[in-house]
Amino acid sequence: MYCPLAFYIDSYWTCEPNCAYCYSRRLNRTWGNDFRSADPESIKKRLSSKKGTSSISKAIRLKKTIRLGNRSDPFQPWERKYLISTKILEILQKKEWEVVIQTKFISNAIDLAGQFLGKNTLMMAVIPPGFMDDWNLFEYRKTESPASRLEKLGLLLKEGFRVGVNGEPFIPGHHTTAQFRTMLKLLKSYGIKRYNTYNLHLNDWVAKSMFDAGVDIEKIWRMNQDRNWKKIQMKLIQIAEEEEIILGCPDFVNTGPDYKERANTCCGIDVNNPCTFNTHYFKMEAQKGKTAEEIIKNTWEGIGDRERGEAVVKGTTSEFYTLKDAGIFC
């Protein structure tokens, strides 16, 4: 409901680095920390099936853009041994399926799956605004260094690949707007003009991990609240405009009713076939003056929970944020 790239494949169940700011690592309590991987042949069979009435079946029939790497990194060190992501990319290339690769291991992706990177591939590196400081403090230096990620991404761009950078999370109370501006300038020096920002998904696992890293978690919790984060986010938007960077902002509420996205995903990148039944498209349709009924009609493709989506558009639920919370009344 919140993501135009909601159709995804995870090659692995967990991540070896276990980055401190990653909210998905709380899933380790359910999945465990042991090695588990997807089965490429099962994925191939599923993507070849045209049957079914589920949201996934509909996404497959519509051949929606796939994001490789949602809850775990597809090119983490395990990939060098098991080549699961490489095999999945080979399947997707043969099917001419557009895929966004989200990773902190650009070098692994190039070295292992370079022959399967092509015109249907978009490489999205994950590089938060703390850059090398974040690598030391939160990523435990277990990932490819951010400097190397950026260098490799710049080389891919020169070779004609589509690229972008996911800057999540911006950690209020820890990261600064000056760091954010420095990051944007650094991106521009490599010719990269797309970035994404969102504040911290602060669950109990993240809070403990960041506390163990030695940061002021109470200050972070306080500044991460909407009333404080909103002011910071609007400053980040201003900085991106000044630096002429296309900024993805998945926070449709705190950007207010007037901020307009410049990309067809909240990652700040453009893909050929995103999912549309989500807040990103709900807000863009509302900004065009569409009614709630028109928004639902224009964005519904059979993918996602229609009942919950209607509640977000019409503002009839307190379970989660709606367009009314964003200041848009349909």
Write the layout of secondary structure elements.
Blueprint: E1 8-9, H1 28-31, H2 40-48, H3 55-61, E2 66-68, H4 79-82, H5 84-94, E3 99-103, H6 106-113, E4 121-126, H7 132-137, H8 146-158, E5 162-166, H9 177-189, E6 194-196, H10 204-212, H11 217-223, H12 226-242, E7 246-248, H13 279-287, H14 292-299, H15 306-314
Parallel strand pairs: 1-2, 2-3, 3-4, 4-5, 5-6, 6-7
* Helix fraction by DSSP (H/I, runs of at least 4): 40-55%
Number of domains: 2
How many runs of DSSP E, i.e. beta strands?
Answer: 7
CATH class of the largest domain: Alpha Beta
Shape: globular
- End-to-end gap: 18 Å
If you consult CATH, what is the topology of the largest domain? Answer: TIM Barrel
Task: Please state the second-level CATH architecture of the largest domain.
Answer: Alpha-Beta Barrel
Going across the biggest sheet, name each strand in turn: 1-2-3-4-5-6-7
| Biggest pleated-sheet summary | 7 strands, parallel
The SSE string, one letter per element, is EHHHEHHEHEHHEHEHHHEHHH
CATH superfamily of the largest domain: Aldolase class I
Structural class: alpha/beta
Characterization of the model:
41% of the residues lie in helices and 8% in strands. With 330 residues, the chain is of the alpha/beta class. A 7-stranded parallel sheet has the order 1-2-3-4-5-6-7, with helices on one face. The longest helix is centred in the C-terminal third of the chain and has 17 residues, at 226-242. It is globular and about 50 Å long. The mean pLDDT is 96.
